Amino acid sequence: MVFENPNLQVPRNCGRRLMPAVLDEVAESDPQRVFVSVPRSSNLADGYKDIPYGTFAKAVNKCAWYLREQLGKDSMPKTILYMGPLDVRYLIIILAAAKAGHMAFFSSLRNSLEAHLSLLDKSGCDTVLVPSRAPAILSQIFAARPMEQIATPEVDFFFEGLDQVQPIPFTLTWEEAKTKPFCVLHTSGSTGIPKPVFVTYGTFASNDAHQLIPSLGGKPTLINYLSGQRLFLALPVFHAACLTFTLVFNIFGGVTCVLPPPEPLTADLANQAFLHGNLDGALMAPSLIVDCYNHNTYCVNMVQRLKFLSYVGGALPEEVGNVLTTRIKLMTMMGSCETALHPLELNPDPADWQYLTISPFLGHSFRKDRDGLSDLIFTRDPRFELFQGVFRTFPDKDEFAMGDLFEQHPHRPESWVFRARTDDIIAFTTAEKLNPITMETVISTNAKVKSAVVGGQGQFQASVLIEPYTYPQSKEEEDQFIRDIWPSILQANRDCPAHGRIMRGFVMLTKPEKPMPRAGKDTVQRHQVLKLYAEEFRELYERMRPHVKKDGVALEVGEEKEPVEVNGGGDDLDRRVEEALQRVLPGAVERAVQDVLARLLAGLTGQLPAVGPQSVPERPSVHVNGKVNGVAETTNGVEEAVQTGPPELKKVIYDQLGENIDIRDIKDDSDLFQFGLDSLVVIDLTNALNTYIIKWRPGKELLEPKVVYDNPTVERILNLVEGAGEV
């Protein structure tokens, strides 16, 4: 694996450099080097336009002159809010503000009015740049708070007449700037109102220092691996992670960033970038990766067009990651506004895709917290001063706790996997505790679920709030929706402690007029959701209270006679367990026994069907079209085992064909072209077959459409897929 770009040697003063100054240096020494690649239009099929350093640096100078003209050449330093279309102006403005002696402030377009006003007050911001297509929230801000308003020109303005633009030198030295704020960002707001973070020049420079680690005897980190590669950033450009790559890893490390158009980041848009962006890799939110994974065409293009895929901002479901890592280099990333990106080593084993291996040059430790989890702690250490950007953000602190809980790798003690925020843990009235993150991740993987938040703080058991992609329009549709997603909830129940399982009566849906609040990187703000739906959760538990025994144990809804306890003991439960074991032990493997016990403990009643031997699936449980393979479903109150393992390939083929042509008279040996198979159907079928291979046949080569033309029968396609060569 190549970690270094020979054209980008570690420079002098690495870790002590300032971005505006380095921008000008590169523009002078290598003006044609690509700074950023932007879409030519909202239709990515029109291609991308590379903006070289020489051009971009002049655009920054033009914007800096514009700010001086509007604010006054000798005005005191100001904090300047910008909120607008998610285009390259964000990158121009943040650097231009610094060169003009001011400081840019970016507030997420998703923030509430309350959050915006709080951030403006705490950051001391009274000036705003207003684009022609201003977000609606700005008018609400102006109605609530007086602001100095400055019109922001369109993008083209900053790239016109550049030959006449005079440079504005950046004269601050390292010692003057290392603890001086460069810009204002804010925390995600996952635990309440977001807080402003004054990100210093030194904070971002700590990521520049990552390039020094190999020369100091450490292992290469992400900045070494990504140097010289084209990275698609499917994140809002105002977000700290996006700025880390578009500015820091770009200017300091030579990463070329490819931006999306200023539109909502959908799986369709990401797929267009895969096709037309000339990409090496992508950085995406986990939810967007799942959306691409659940679409045949997008999934195939993602693994065929990219060399690596990275994610940030949340957990990627294991069911998805375990499949993708067999086809593509999959990497998790982590950092924060306060700390910048952590120096992450690349894991040698693809199976460890979700583990973080943080370079010891960060000077960190993992402090034991609870339930076998540990908190990530930074402690000031003069030996690692260049790498500890957090103490440039907070120069008065000697210790900083991330508030993230990790679990150690069972065999590689230097590697850790994120499990939860310290403030995410749910405490029930039974004194039991639950980490809801894994459950939420599993449920959200269902193709019909946009997001899920598990509740139950201070209650007797867990509940879940579901945000659908498509809202049911009637009670019947809502009941069907819950039936469709129930296998995913059962999967989450199987993977969590018995006291945290979700009963069917404890599921509710969001309201269309009250979508879940989200942070800039599209992650759900859990605590804001719980606050927004506090009344609905209260009503849910009041409604369910009659179904709870005096000892606080929940019962399954509708069980009036001899109710079965959940999360508790009792003679009735013991008898049922004994009877079930007598039925299933003969010929049953351990997994089947666990399934029966899980169903009993989940409070489900009725005559349990005999359970035969089951095998562990070849691949993890994977959500396909809203279903979960290998998970029990419920019919008439009784769970029935769904066949474990991959779906039948013949059914996959016929289902895909049936979406486009009449299959009623097709036989396995029929020539499909005689029944309407055409080029478009061939492409859809090829994508469906390749998705099957990706998810269920690791190591098999993917197919080209030509092989379907050469083998136009179901029978020959079956033989073809099962006989595909090894990669």
TrEMBL record:
<dbReference type="InterPro" id="IPR000873">
    <property type="entry name" value="AMP-dep_synth/lig_dom"/>
</dbReference>
<dbReference type="Pfam" id="PF23562">
    <property type="entry name" value="AMP-binding_C_3"/>
</dbReference>
<feature type="domain" description="Carrier">
    <location>
        <begin position="643"/>
        <end position="725"/>
    </location>
</feature>
<dbReference type="InterPro" id="IPR042099">
    <property type="entry name" value="ANL_N_sf"/>
</dbReference>
<dbReference type="InterPro" id="IPR051414">
    <property type="entry name" value="Adenylate-forming_Reductase"/>
</dbReference>
<dbReference type="InterPro" id="IPR009081">
    <property type="entry name" value="PP-bd_ACP"/>
</dbReference>
<dbReference type="InterPro" id="IPR006162">
    <property type="entry name" value="Ppantetheine_attach_site"/>
</dbReference>
<dbReference type="InterPro" id="IPR036736">
    <property type="entry name" value="ACP-like_sf"/>
</dbReference>
<keyword id="KW-0596">Phosphopantetheine</keyword>
<dbReference type="Pfam" id="PF00501">
    <property type="entry name" value="AMP-binding"/>
</dbReference>
<keyword id="KW-0597">Phosphoprotein</keyword>
<dbReference type="InterPro" id="IPR020845">
    <property type="entry name" value="AMP-binding_CS"/>
</dbReference>
<dbReference type="Pfam" id="PF00550">
    <property type="entry name" value="PP-binding"/>
</dbReference>
<protein>
    <submittedName>
        <fullName>Thioester reductase domain-containing protein</fullName>
    </submittedName>
</protein>
